[in-house]
Amino acid sequence: MFYMMASAMFLMAACKEDRVTGVSIEPREVVLSLGESMVLTATVTPDNAKEQTVYWFTSSPDFVTVDDNGRITCIRDWEYIRYSDYYDNYYDYVSIYAMTKESQFEDECRVWFVSDKNLKLSKSILSMSVGGKQTLTATLFDRIPSNQTVTWSSNTPQTATVNAATGEVTAVARGIAIITAATQDGGRTASCTVLVDTDILLSEDFETGYGTMLTRWTFDNGSYTNRWHVGTATENGGNQSCYISNNNSNNRYSGNSECNVRFFRELNIVSTAENPVIISFDWKVQLIEQLFDNSSRSNDRLTFFIEDDNGMNETAILTNSYAWQRSEITLPSMSGTIRVGFRWYNAPRNNSSLTAPGAAIDNILIYRR
């Protein structure tokens, strides 16, 4: 009798020890950009629980997927969520859930989206003289409290140094340096080009109105619906940029409307192999095919061009990078009047409801090295 009671008590204790009492996910919050992936870890408590099976779920499989092993992948970026024609509301995050087999317990990880505006600098271009000092400031739009610190660095400290904590830039010698601010986790960076005693031929940040831009640049928009516009829908520092718009306001292009538009500036330059002229600019472009899994592929593209008496030479084709990028192009040896500018082309599609952000240009700088 005593043996039977002891056995029963032992079995009851064992059952109690084997029973699942909870599950937790690590990490609890992450930030992902388009295409990034990582593995979450789910821990069932207690450690000796007999049933360790965990099922994974995502609140928005169109944005972030999760597999049976807890691997999450961001398949849409923040701009898609913000501007998609198929969603009345957009979300700052997606919830990933780990649930125990009996569905008694669950835990949540929030996946925050990286926006092109997560990290912004007060200036994208600095022109300085040797010995001068200026301080850059960074604004970080990040929902994770532990990721609010930025660190500053210079790629050419012999030209310009920067205080890693304060962002104070000191011009050391003639030349060009790139000052970069990086978030604590290294996930987001933003850069400023510093020119020390450099011959600047043109600097354009589009901070004046569209009317003023018409006196400085030629806009060849024709009668197209999608056209170049200067406004506040997007920018990379400051308040404005030049971008493609289907309504002279937003940064969107319509897929059902073909267009071939450009804007350019005439310059009288002398560029030689020994003393070349450099053109640098910020750009981003997101095509309909990147936002939607559309079967009809197209030749939509943003190009930088140089035009002289011999015709137009499309020097660089820029596609599919909705995070701001900075490109630098060295002009070939040439002398005289040329046109430098940007061309946007998109083909018509059968599905008239599709739109996407298209192209944007900011902070154009032309200088002699």
Largest sheet: 6 strands, antiparallel
Structural class: mainly beta
CATH architecture annotation of the largest domain: Sandwich
Number of strands: 31
Global morphology: globular
Average pLDDT confidence is: 81
Low-confidence stretches: 1-15, 83-90
**How helical, in percent, are the residues?**
under 10%
SS strand fraction = over 45%
Question: Explain this structure to me?
Answer:
The chain has 369 residues and is mostly beta strands. It folds into three domains: 97 residues, Immunoglobulin-like, CATH 2.60.40; 78 residues, Immunoglobulin-like (Sandwich), CATH 2.60.40; 170 residues, Jelly Rolls (Sandwich), CATH 2.60.120. Helix content is 9%, strand content 50%. The protein is built from four helices and 31 strands. The strands form nine sheets. Strands 19, 21, 22, 25, 28 and 31 form a six-stranded antiparallel sheet that branches. The longest helix has 17 residues.
What are the main properties of this structure?
mainly beta, globular, 369 residues, 31 strands, Immunoglobulin-like, 9% helix, Jelly Rolls, disordered N terminus, 3 domains
Short description:
The protein is mainly β and 369 residues long.
Present the secondary structure layout.
Layout: H1 2-18, E1 22-26, E2 29-32, E3 37-39, E4 41-45, E5 54-58, E6 64-66, E7 71-74, H2 78-83, E8 93-100, E9 106-113, E10 119-121, E11 125-128, E12 133-135, E13 138-140, E14 150-154, E15 160-162, E16 168-171, E17 175-183, E18 189-196, E19 199-204, H3 210-216, E20 218-220, E21 227-231, E22 241-245, E23 253-254, E24 259-271, E25 277-286, H4 288-291, E26 301-308, E27 311-318, E28 321-330, E29 334-346, E30 355-356, E31 358-368
Parallel strand pairs: 2-9, 11-18
Antiparallel strand pairs: 1-4, 3-7, 5-8, 6-7, 8-9, 10-13, 12-16, 14-17, 15-16, 17-18, 19-31, 20-24, 21-22, 22-31, 23-30, 24-29, 25-28, 25-31, 26-27, 26-29
